[in-house]
Design brief:
The chain has about 160 residues and is mainly alpha-helical. It contains five helices and two strands, in the order H-H-H-E-H-H-E. The chain has a two-stranded antiparallel ribbon. Helix 2 crosses helix 4. The radius of gyration is 19 Å and the shape is elongated. About 25% of the residues are buried.
Length: about 160
């Protein structure tokens, strides 16, 4: 049996700009991760409340505006920290994507924070991707970032070109 060439698999996309579908699937996965973190935080707060005040066990009841502010902060923090530290969120890792600063360098904390705020405030900016010549969302255009396929952690593999 012959060994498949790198051109047959995901390696052929290494370093290329990611499209709308891959980015949308990654974003949906990230929404689920943030919701999971929020539920765990709510259960943890309920457990602390139970230990301090006694029965009954109940998560805290927050006002709608406070829930919105905390949800915004949690989402922005999750995205910004993930993009600063590894360039990948859980969803991006799942889809083999990485957010980079052109030309392929890490995003940095300031750009990651601004990009996270833009992505949360204006999520429909993602739909600019198929209209852009370089598959960039509105957030990518503002902070000069790119979302690229990265199956090998920024390294070229089997003769493939490295990240841009």
């Amino acid at each position: 049996m012959t060994r498949p060439s790198p051109a047959d698999g995901p390696a052929r996309f290494q370093g290329r700009a990611a499209g709308l579908v891959s980015r949308t699937v990654a974003a949906v996965a990230d929404i689920l991760v943030v919701l999971g973190i929020a539920v765990l935080a709510d259960l943890f707060a309920g457990a602390v409340r139970f230990l301090v005040l006694g029965p009954p066990f109940a998560p805290p009841k927050l006002s709608d505006w406070l829930t919105g502010v905390l949800g915004f902060a949690l989402t922005v923090g999750y995205l910004a920290v993930s993009w600063t530290v590894t360039g990948q969120t859980v969803g991006a890792r799942l889809m083999g994507l990485r957010v980079v600063r052109r030309p392929g360098r890490p995003l940095g904390a300031g750009r990651a924070l601004l990009r996270a705020v833009l992505c949360v405030v204006f999520p429909l900016g993602l739909f600019w991707t198929p209209l852009s010549r370089r598959d960039a969302s509105v957030a990518d255009l503002v902070v000069r970032s790119a979302v690229v396929y990265d199956w090998y952690g920024g390294r070229a593999r089997d003769g493939q070109r490295p990240l841009p």
